[in-house]
Amino acid sequence: MLFDINEDTHDDTSIVSAIDDTIKEFRSQTQEEIDNKIYFTIDGHELKFTDDSMGMPFTDKNNRIMVPIRKPLEMINAEVEFDAKRNKAIAKKDSLLVEVPINEDYIKVNGRIINMDTKAIIKDNRTYVPLRYVFEALNYKVEWHGETKTAVITNSNI
């Protein structure tokens, strides 16, 4: 992320704005929320989950990051839908079709089964999927920075 060093500006790339936003965010959260917060970047752009109406990421019992499917996938221009009849989320990007059945320990990528050590779930009327499996299926690289609790997601094709 690039920052404007001119301290009298308050636009989206200003370091002053970034600091102000961080202070406001921390003041509005409980200590538990701060301790459990997970940060994300996708192709160098921050992905913020600030509103519970879109769902909030969490770490599941298998120590996997679970994200509400729609927001991060739409950020990479993937089409996202939910097939209620078959109880699965579907993501389409370029020539890839990723099917994520709810409460199953696998996903399908163009019909090929990929086993997982966790399951997609529905929580608070939101579909949560394991971040790494879904993004890697869409040809993205996922790196975890434990010290900053940040998932860094980059397009493998770039």
What does this protein look like?
- This protein is an alpha+beta fold and 158 residues long.
- The protein has a single domain, classed as 2-Layer Sandwich (Copper Amine Oxidase, Chain A, domain 1), CATH 3.30.457.
- It is built from four helices and 13 strands.
- It has helices at residues 15-27, 31-36, 70-75, 131-137, and strands at residues 39-42, 45-47, 58-59, 65-68, 79-83, 88-93, 96-101, 106-109, 112-115, 121-123, 126-130, 140-145, 150-155.
- The strands form three sheets. A five-stranded antiparallel sheet has the order 5-6-7-8-9. It has a four-stranded mixed sheet with strand order 2-1-13-12, covered by helices on one side. The chain has a four-stranded antiparallel sheet with strand order 3-4-11-10.
- A hairpin with a 2-residue loop joins strand 8 and strand 9.
- It is globular and about 45 Å long.
- It starts with 14 loop residues before the first helix and ends with a strand.
- The mean pLDDT is 86.
What layout of secondary structure does this protein have?
Blueprint: H1 15-27, H2 31-36, E1 39-42, E2 45-47, E3 58-59, E4 65-68, H3 70-75, E5 79-83, E6 88-93, E7 96-101, E8 106-109, E9 112-115, E10 121-123, E11 126-130, H4 131-137, E12 140-145, E13 150-155
Parallel strand pairs: 1-13
Antiparallel strand pairs: 1-2, 3-4, 4-11, 5-6, 6-7, 7-8, 8-9, 10-11, 12-13
Domain Copper amine oxidase-like N-terminal: 55-153
Protein name: Copper amine oxidase-like domain-containing protein
InterPro entries: Cu_amine_oxidase-like_N, Mao_N_sf
